[in-house]
Specification:
Largest sheet: 3 strands, antiparallel
Structural class: mainly alpha
Number of helices: 12
Order of helices and strands: EHHHHHHHHEEHHHH
Number of strands: 3
Distance between the termini: 66 Å
């Protein structure tokens, strides 16, 4: 992937791979790699298992999983895990550079925490059990969703050359991300995980664009009020006959038309 356009592209290459590296971000990538490896080692697999989001949150009171699950690497022994780590580091590096360390980490854990609470509520309402519950949002998958959404919001007009061939505006990555999550839901039936990904995307958008979010909320509220008033008017029309215009009908018209309301 490459990025072009704007003064930002002249200051820093996409992902910051040629510039200074953030130690805290490298540490997070290292933790993901270590916990990912632990799941295949006898005697150590319990560590990532206790960190991952599961029904133990409400069944056994393991509430720490609401914030530890993004740091537990997830997936089978495949090269795609390393590819996911690389993509996460590239996007997260840009977001951290733009927001600063403290704001970046607040964005990361607040979004992941809100997403975990929403997913747990959905899973609890669905019966609380499921073989594939939360698989779409475990570990680096949630971090990747947050980092890509953050980049899409901050650098929305940047152009990403996907695979060095396909130019895509950064803002479209939000919808691409949701589309991938939907396909994952169709393959796993993990509706709680799909809700978690969508919640994380919405939370990142709300935290990074609070003014726009308030505008959307106000617009939604006005639309709801307009729909409610329209329903009240429709109910009124069923009870009374509305005569258009401001003139009072003549007596002859009143006889033929019946009761009227001006």
């Amino acid at each position: 992937m490459t990025m072009g356009g704007g003064p930002y592209a002249r200051r820093m290459s996409f992902g910051g791979l040629s510039g200074p590296h953030a130690r805290d971000l490298l540490l997070l990538v290292g933790v993901l790699f270590v916990t990912f490896s632990m799941q295949f080692l006898q005697g150590l697999a319990i560590v990532p298992e206790l960190m991952r989001l599961s029904s133990s949150v409400w069944q056994q009171g393991m509430v720490w999983q609401l914030v530890t699950y993004p740091a537990a690497g997830w997936g089978g022994p495949s090269i795609w895990f390393l590819v996911e780590l690389l993509i996460f580091y590239m996007f997260a590096g840009d977001v951290r550079w733009a927001l600063g360390r403290q704001r970046f980490w607040n964005l990361l854990w607040m979004s992941a925490g809100v997403a975990a609470v929403a997913a747990c509520l959905v899973q609890l309402l669905a019966g609380g059990a499921g073989p594939n519950a939360f698989v779409l949002m475990q570990g680096q998958r949630m971090l990747l969703a947050i980092a890509i959404t953050g980049f899409a919001v901050i650098r929305r007009d940047a152009t990403i050359m996907l695979f060095f061939v396909l130019p895509i505006r950064a803002r479209w990555f939000i919808w691409i991300e949701i589309a991938f999550a939907w396909v994952g839901f169709l393959a796993t039936s993990d509706f709680a995980g799909f809700v978690g990904i969508c919640t994380a995307v919405g939370t990142v958008f709300a935290l990074l664009r609070p003014g726009r979010t308030r505008g959307l909320m106000r617009e939604s509220r006005l639309r709801l009020e307009r729909w409610y008033i329209r329903q009240k008017l429709n109910r009124g029309r069923r009870r009374f006959r509305v005569v258009p215009g401001g003139k009072k009908p003549k007596d002859d018209d009143r006889v033929h038309r019946g009761p009227w309301v001006n």
